[in-house]
Fold this sequence. Notes:
This protein is of the alpha/beta class. It has two domains: 2-236, Nucleotidyltransferase, domain 5, CATH 3.30.420.40; 245-422 and 452-483, Nucleotidyltransferase, domain 5 (2-Layer Sandwich), CATH 3.30.420. The protein contains 17 helices and 24 strands. The strands form seven sheets. Strands 1, 2, 3, 5, 13, 14 and 15 form a seven-stranded mixed β-sheet that branches. The protein has a seven-stranded mixed β-sheet with strand order 18-19-17-16-22-23-24.
Amino acid sequence: xxxxxxxxxxxxxxxxxxxxxxxxxxxxxxxxxxxxxxxxxxxxxxxxxxxxxxxxxxxxxxxxxxxxxxxxxxxxxxxxxxxxxxxxxxxxxxxxxxxxxxxxxxxxxxxxxxxxxxxxxxxxxxxxxxxxxxxxxxxxxxxxxxxxxxxxxxxxxxxxxxxxxxxxxxxxxxxxxxxxxxxxxxxxxxxxxxxxxxxxxxxxxxxxxxxxxxxxxxxxxxxxxxxxxxxxxxxxxxxxxxxxxxxxxxxxxxxxxxxxxxxxxxxxxxxxxxxxxxxxxxxxxxxxxxxxxxxxxxxxxxxxxxxxxxxxxxxxxxxxxxxxxxxxxxxxxxxxxxxxxxxxxxxxxxxxxxxxxxxxxxxxxxxxxxxxxxxxxxxxxxxxxxxxxxxxxxxxxxxxxxxxxxxxxxxxxxxxxxxxxxxxxxxxxxxxxxxxxxxxxxxxxxxxxxxxxxxxxxxxxxxxxxxxxxxxxxxxxxxxxxx
Length: 483
């Protein structure tokens, strides 16, 4: 018995095969490109995802005899993309991706529409799906009139495998068409976006069966039995399943190009005014909240480029012992900011520079600025009643013990560093496939990694970083006023 988790990313597809106990057997990756036909536009032809899937499956079949015992598949996908199908299930145009900003005016109009935030639980961001369709209605009404179904990227890949128009709750929560509390399409939200329920896919939970692998694909893939295709999940919900963030307070800090703080919630507690995302989790009766800062390791990479020093060399200069907050302050808004400011135009700044300032001082300020940006999300979550427990620290930035220790102290929350192995979105998708195929309880399958080092806050420095965070918060309106 084997299960396949597919992580459909913006730059490539990763397929992970696990055995009946959830242990990885093999993986395959296929890269592809994104098209940018105009400034602010970001598109992909869905056929490249299909081609990548079959290339990955061919590689796994050749390397892993256990693939023949495949019993379940699930797809984790980049959220918010709009794959448009006509009445004959043909793709009408390239998929408009999550990082496409052309629909900023339409997003603002929808966001200001009465009841939209209240029902969707979220601000309508330009990357969400509903404003994309509004943009199409205004700028290409002929194509808009042909739309029979709208599928998200993960749902389209599942449609290719099953022939069924099905989407899961977690991914659909990022469309601005779903009543996130009721976990159903909202007639009011659909009306606001000039869409109809019949244009929406059938909704299932991410760990529920959404269909079965088509007989012709099962034959081509050399599979010897029926294969369940689960509902799947949006990428962050799948990552939460991979890291074991299922119950209230469980979550992770991701230090990648952007920074993410995600917490699982046992109930629905929206706080759109904070620019938090409040989405359905991939299992029934659970939700998650997530804040995003647009530049995390990107800030350190920027300092690396202008200084000519590798990021690892920059952080190594600070030593191992956590230092008290420095006199130099950095606002990490190199690409604008999402949570809590929802401000695409703000830009970063250093303050407190002097003739005595060193590169180590600037590095320290950058790390502190990112940590304070993550605390912005943590504070927003507290206003929504979230209880934050031990968080898993993942992403490239987590290789710096200094940075992890700093973030733990700024958040006053222990951070756990998972030991090497699988704990990402592909594993989360494989776990959802296993639950859908076997009927196991999600709580018995979606578990945190065993072992791993735990980095505790430095209690002696918590008060100093609390005061430094207050100064950081006061700096935003000041710097915004002069930009």
